[in-house]
Amino acid sequence: MADTTWRASLGGAAKNRSTRAWRVGSSAVIVAAVVLAVLVVPPLVNLDEQAVNLAAKLRPPSWEHPFGTDDVGRDLLLRCVYGLRVSLLVGVVAAVVATVIGTAVGALAAASGGWVDRVVMRLVDVFSSVPHLLLGIFIVAMFRPGVWPVVVSVALTHWLSTARIVRAEVLSLRSRPYVDAAISGGASRTRVIVRHLLPGVLPQAGLAAVLMVPHAIWHESALSFLGLGLPTHQASLGTLVQSARGSLLAGDWWPTLFPGLFIIVPTLAIAGLAGAWRERINPRRRSELML
User: What is d(CA 75, CA 56) in angstroms, rounded to the nearest whole number?
Assistant: First the structure.
């Protein structure tokens, strides 16, 4: 009986490892394909993604147009690639900026302690009580539509979770013997933070940045879908879905399906890689990824 249980346990562990390896491998392939597409396709394909051809409007997928055409005859594959390029730019830049802000705020609060920690974390709680999308709409509404207002909006609404994570990690590191030794040796607070605390939180901060990229892409797509992100003439996954609503009601499914897949599949692939990274950083926590 014990031998059977042991064999079943080994089989289950091997199956889990195989599933995890397949998930990570497929996610890596998708992310590599996405990066290759956004870097290689625009320079190599000598086509204007804004070129209008009313004679070819709303053509279904074919060899000439693998994703079909939109309501003014533009190639949807090329438009999706350009839209993904913009969405990735917004997602990556916003995630990096938000991570830098969150890391600085969390490290400052934990390293300072006392009333500084309490005030900073109460401010974090206040901002966290406002829905991200609502606060993002308020920020974007103050600027003209464009890429950088969306980056600012996403960055200023997504640093809060990073601040909490970094604060908790710094509080844990402060109790380590080498930190006590540095303080006893006369090291300044700034030196302790820069030389001993920040290097310890960089893996968590990097993981937070990667986890934030899919969320930032979804946030940008939502703002653009609402007409508050990028201008309607500029290719963005959110604007592509928004402009295809009329076509969907008329029974033309491809202008909505393919931009939607370009939002969902790459972000899930990035989330899959982030989950594998989290398991490597903290093997005891193999819970499902939550954004």
Answer: 9
